[in-house]
Amino acid sequence: MKVNLLEEKSQQAIQDSNELGIDANGVQKTxxxxxxxxxxxxxxxxNAIAGLVGMLTYFYTDKVGMAAGAVGTIFLLVRIFxxxxxxxxxxIVDKTKSKYxxxxxxxxxxxxxxxxxxxxxxxVPANASLSVKNLYAALTVFFATAxxxxxIVIPYGxxxxxxxxxxxxxxxxxxxxxxxxxxxxxxVSVALIPVTNLLGGDQRAWIIVATVLAILSSVCLYLTFxxxxxxxxxxxxxKLDEQVTFKESFKLLFKNKYWxxxxxxxxxxxxxxxxxxxxxxxxxxxxxxxxxxxxxMGAVGLIPVVVGFVAVGPMTKKYGPAKTxxxxxxxxxxxxxxxxxxxxxxIGALVLGAVTTFSMIPLMALSGVLTTNTVEYGEWKxxxxxxxxxxxxxxxxxxxxxxxGAAMIGWILAFGQYDGTLALQPDSSILxxxxxxxxxxxxxxxxxxxxxxxxxxxxxxxxIVKELEMRKSVxx
Length: 476
What we know:
- With 476 residues, the protein is mainly α.
- Helix content is 82%, strand content 0%.
- α5 (68-95) runs parallel beside α8 (130-163) and α19 runs antiparallel to α20.
C-alpha cells in the first residue's frame, strides 16, 4: 500500500512537471500560482516584526515611560547579537534533517514563537521600575529579532534555493515576496498610530493591535509551510553538507565571488533604505521648511512603488534579474545626480525622489534571487552546496548595513552640530542634512551600480545548472 502511494505521488509529480514545462534557460519549472502566493505570504511575519520593532522607540518612550538613551543602547546591543545569530542559524539550517527537509520545518516550528514574540514586545510591565522595564525590553526584543526573526528569515531565504533552480520562478518568488512584504510594512507604518489612537492610544491599544498582527503573521507562516516543497535537495547533497565543517563553509563563502558581490550590495542597499526611511522628516522640516510635506511625498512615493512592482516582472523575463537591476539603478543615479544641483526644490524632491524610489524596487524584489543563484555557482565551483550559510551571510551583511546606516545618521548630524531644540539650524547642520538626504544616497547608488556591473552570473547560470544536473545523473 505504501509503495503504491509513493508511486502515485511520483507519477503526479511527473505529470505536474510536464504541465509546467521549462523556463527560457531550459530549467524544469516546479511552481504553480498557489505556490507563489503561499510562498509570498511568508514575508508577512518578517515585515510585521521589523515594522513593529521600528515603532518600539516611540512606544517605549511615550507609552511606558522609558528613557530614550536606554532604548537606544538596548537596540544597539541587540543588533550586535542579532547579526551573529544569523551565522549560527545558517549552519543550523545546513545541518537540519527532517521529513520536511532542511528549511521548510523551521516555518512550522516558528508559528507559535512568532505569535508570542510579537505580543510580548508590547506587554512591558507598566508599573515596574525602569530597570525591570529595560531588562524586559532587552529580552523581548532579543527574542523577537535575534531568535524568532532569524529562525524564520534564514530558512525562508534558503527555501528559494531549495524550491527551484529556475531563475524565472525565483524571480516571481522574489517579486511576490516583495509585494507582500511592502504591503504589511506599509500597513504597519501608516495605520499603526491612527488605529491605536482610535482604540484609546494607551498600552492596551498597542497590545490589541499587536495581537491581531501576531495572529495574522502566524497564519501566514503556516500557509507558507503548507504550500512549500524542497525540490532540489537530494540525499547525496545532504550527505555532502554534513561533511562541510563550519570553518570550511565560512571559507567557501568568500571563495564565491558572486556571493561577495551580493553581500556588499545588500550592505549598501540597506544603508540607502535606512537613510531614505529615517531622514525625510529632517529634509522637509529644515530644507523645505514644512514638515507636513512629508505626507505628500509619502503619498506620491506610492506611485513608483506600484509601477515598479508591475514593471519588474516583465523586465526580468526579458532582460534577466541582474540587467533589470542595473537598468533601474541607472535611472536612480541620474535622478539623484540632478537632485544634487537642485537640493532645495520641492518639485525636484517629489519627482526625482519618485524616480529614485522606482529604481530601488527591482533591487529590493530581486536581491534574494541574485543571492540564491550564487548557491548553484558555489556548488558548481567548489562541489559543496551550503544554502543556509549563504543566506545567513547575506542577512548578516544586510543587518550590519542597516545598523551602520542608522548610526551614520546620528554621527553626521552630530558632526554638523544639529540641535533638535532649535527652530533655525546653523549652516553646518543644513549641510549635514543635505549630505544624508541628497549627496550620500547618490554616492551609494553609484557604488551599488559599479558592483552590480561585475555581477554577470546570469550569463553563465544556464550552463552551470546543466552541468550540475549532469553530475547528479552520473552520481546517481
